[in-house]
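User: Before I run my own analysis I want an independent prediction to cross-check against. Here's the chain; please return only the structure tokens and, at the end, one sentence I can use as a sanity check.
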Amino acid sequence: MDWRELEESTVGDVVKQGTVAQRLHKLGQELGIPVLLAIRFCYEGDNNIHDGVQMASLLNGYLGLIQNEGEVRWIMPESWSVLLNNPHVNPFLFG
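Assistant: Structure tokens:
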């Protein structure tokens, strides 16, 4: 993955106004705290479990939080169980 650092003047073009990411970035600036925003562009509504696992793996590769030879096995939150093999949830809702 090719990570790119954004110039301060372009952050507003990439991070939507009113989002948690935008507020965290602004607060970090005001308090002088370095902030890392990892942003992944995706189609509206097409963020799914695969995207979450891929983002976690990419961030781990960048930050080196979990030292592991081979692929990291992520533990899914219990709340995601409603998305997997649930006959009451229409799978087309999640891409």
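Sanity check: The chain has two domains: 1-39, 46-95.
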